[in-house]
Amino acid sequence: MLVKATICSTTGCVSQNKTLGGSRKDYAGTLYTLGEGVIPIRIVTLYCRDCKTTYRPNYRVTDAHTPESMRCYYGGIPEYLEVSEHGYVELKLVSLFRSQMAFSHASADAVARIYNTSQSEDALQTPLTSENVWNAFYLHSLLLDKSRHGKHLIVPHHGVQAIRFNSVLAERNLSMAGTGQPHWAHACDVCEKIICADADGHANRISACVMDGVNVGHTRCNVEQCIRSLASPRDRFCPSHQNRTQICAIRGCEQACSDGFRTCLLVAHRALETSQQEISNKAIFRLRARLRNATSVPAKSTSTPPPSAAAPALVPPMKLKSSLTRRWTYNEQLMVSCCGVIKSRATFYEAESLSNAYVCSRFVLATFPPSFPRALPSYLFYDNNCLFLRHLRVIGDTYITMSTGLPVDVFHAVNKHKDTDLFCQMHCNPAGFPELYNDQNEWTFNSSAAEQANVWFGKFLSVVREMTEIHFNFFLDEMILIYNEEVVSRIARTGKHPRLVPVEELSLSRAL
Fold this sequence. Notes:
It contains 15 helices and 17 strands. By secondary structure, the protein is α+β, with helices and mostly antiparallel strands. It is globular.
């Protein structure tokens, strides 16, 4: 039997801190557990007549019958989480769900299937669903976040469960951008080094991070440079540009669509759309062509069908840019300490190098804002640092360039950058920074530290591909949080002294 509150906790109620004496209701429910499988339970709700508040196992709600009523969750993390009106999931099981998602890259559907296959036939009368898994994941993650900040989770009581948490998810997404990850101020003996002492005996401490991109993205508006959110992942345009659905999908053309197509009547534009339809359905076109060939040749003949009966050409007549299909963001950019801890993440919308240089500068400033000058690493490895440095010099940046060295990571410096690029060799060659290697010519930092994180992160592509932007960002931030906790735990076991640098220290001015 599940029951949480026994006294009224509503501030200002005349019965506050008194035993709840209102109506008591209980009804049948289902509890999904880790060790005992699926268990039938009784769910108890209590009611305070004075403040008209209903107390359920996870939360209380005042005036539940009104449309604007809100659920106020109790403090801390409950042992059993409500994932539907009659369904609860044990906290231990939710922790397993999180680990399966983070380290096996399992979708909610896969997690539910794995759990259900381990249960008896009788238990499967009320199987765990992917919706239950997602609800448990989001609720648990939000409660953890609120608990870390000493706050209570408050969400609308009425409405569809799938969008109940959207406003608080979006709020948490904003707080996680830039400096929001719990391990943003991480330091350890792997990503920080003491390289020498000056004449006064003071140690010289240096640190390093790696910036890199991973090809994971969410659907976006087809209009260039537009970063507004879509109403649905299935849309091609954001709400502000929905009128573009009535205009020819070929870029640069402003003619109206016609005949149920996404293009205008121009032959070249219509041909591109029809050819793409044929390409996406090429199997049926080829099989139909084969069937026509077979039926047009006498039964005993083994001659080759005439060329005119061949499958229709699949090559578009012209190379034109279009918005016929959905469009995805370019990549996710990660800022990774050389020990493997991911400090922050950002979405890059465009692929052009010049645009990326500008967005990279904003990403670095968001991760290491001027209000925390000592958060800037001594060195920032990036595979395209030569272009990035050129951009910083053009805009007159001094905050980054005066405090941080910008070498290309060793792999790309050796294999991707030309010897004839004098700017790159003079300013971004890692061999040009004496602090980055010792007398034995061994590198001080692992500039390929991001690769392992990239491989792990890239496997979420299929999981997040159809998510809304809000859920995409929340899910990936939570996965990074779980990943960082495991990395820090591993660093601690190896005796490398992981720690969080106090923000008071990071806010001090940095000696140049």
